[in-house]
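hey m, so remember when u said the tokens were messed up on ur end? i reran from scratch. heres the input so u can diff it against urs
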Amino acid sequence: MDKIIKYGAIAFVIFFVVTAPNSAASIIDRVFGWLQSWADGVSTFVSDTAL
């Protein structure tokens, strides 16, 4: 059952990327923006508490 869900999710991602590449790129860009924002916040927190 787990293999079916995993392969289904992979197939959906491939289908989404092939049929709507602009939307897929937008989602990836947004996720990287969130990660960058989170990393900047952690960096600021560590810098403020360490010094």
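this time it looks ok to me. The chain has a mean pLDDT of 92. if urs says something different then somethings off w ur setup not the seq
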